[in-house]
Amino acid sequence: MSTTPTSKALEGEWNGFVFRLATDEDFPKISDLLRDNFFTSEPLTVLWGTSEEYERDVDMMCRAMLGDNLSFLALDAATNEVAGVRLNFHNARESQPAPPTNQNAKRITYLLRLLNEKSQLFDTYKIEEFANLFTTCVHKNYRQRGLVTEIYRRTIALTRERGYFLAMATFTNPFSRAGAAKVGFQELARIPLKGLKDEDGEELAPGASDDFCITQAVYIL
Ligand SMILES: CC(C)(COP(=O)(O)OP(=O)(O)OC[C@H]1O[C@@H](n2cnc3c(N)ncnc32)[C@H](O)[C@@H]1OP(=O)(O)O)[C@@H](O)C(=O)NCCC(=O)NCCS
């Protein structure tokens, strides 16, 4: 008997792509996608650079998220190549982020804390849990075809099917932010990075442009 998870709301074809839930077996493909397409162009990683420790940390987080059965893939319908991934997890009030083990993870943990302090999701919406849309990546060969926008649309359907009241997404990339806004995500918190200091008083994002920011947005399901 197959134990592959399914979702009526998510799965199916769209514009030459096939969507399906991701399983633990997909982890090597997801890790490869991130190495070649995320760490090379996600704005914060581009600014800070990457390291083996950081990429391993992200791998570990992704692997853990797959267990929540909320993450999914978009495959090229013709070749079966992974064109995009959406990594989501179940965020309970008592959930604690893994302690950072490297400089990039430390800075990101700090930024997420600043966003959470601004938005106060649990108290604002009187909830004990929500769907946390951790990150997304579209393969370089499939960008600017509306794929991430469709990924956000299907994330809404999936998280609604799972009974969540709210989905929350964090954005460092203006293009994923634009795709999510198009399907109705509402911005709750924004931190401009230019001149921002970290916990030790050091500039957190030297070289950040005037418009570089990290934002948090929600969709009420
Ligand atoms: C960000 C990313 C997911 C966007 O995926 P995508 O499938 O190319 O995005 P879409 O085609 O759905 O485009 C969304 C919007 O951004 C615009 N856009 C996307 N890429 C663009 C580019 N390079 N230049 C200008 N506009 C762009 C699109 O035109 C669209 O806006 P519109 O609806 O007003 O036309 C992809 O570039 C990526 O994986 N980047 C690296 C990893 C990353 O940064 N992940 C997100 C972290 S928050």
Describe the fold and architecture:
This protein has 221 residues and is α+β, with helices and mostly antiparallel strands. 35% of the residues lie in helices and 25% in strands. The protein contains 7 helices and 8 strands. The chain has an 8-stranded mixed sheet, with helices on both faces. Helix 6 links the parallel strand 5 and strand 6. Helix 1 runs antiparallel to helix 3 and helix 6 crosses helix 7. It is globular, with a radius of gyration of 17 Å. The two termini are 33 Å apart. Bound molecules: coenzyme A. Coenzyme A binds next to strand 5, helix 6 and helix 7. GO terms for molecular function: N-acetyltransferase activity. This is N-acetyltransferase domain-containing protein.
- Give the terminus-to-terminus CA distance: 33 Å
Inertia-based shape: globular
Could you estimate the helical fraction of the residues in percent?
A: 25-40%
For the CA atoms, what is the radius of gyration? 17 Å
Percent range for β-strand residues: 15-25%
The number of distinct helices, counting runs of at least 4 residues, comes to 7
Instruction: Please give the number of β-strands.
Output: 8
What's the order of the H and E elements? EEHHHEEHHEHEHEE
Highest-level CATH class: Alpha Beta
What is the overall pLDDT average?
Answer: 96
CATH superfamily: Gcn5-related N-acetyltransferase (GNAT)
* Distinct ligands, ions and cofactors found in the model: coenzyme A
Number of domains: 1
- In the predicted model, the low-confidence regions spanning at least 5 consecutive residues are none
Please outline the major beta sheet.
8 strands, mixed
Oligomer: single chain
Class by SSE composition: alpha+beta
CATH 2nd-level architecture: 3-Layer(aba) Sandwich
CATH fold-level topology: Aminopeptidase
Protein name: N-acetyltransferase domain-containing protein
GO molecular function: N-acetyltransferase activity
Organism: Allacma fusca
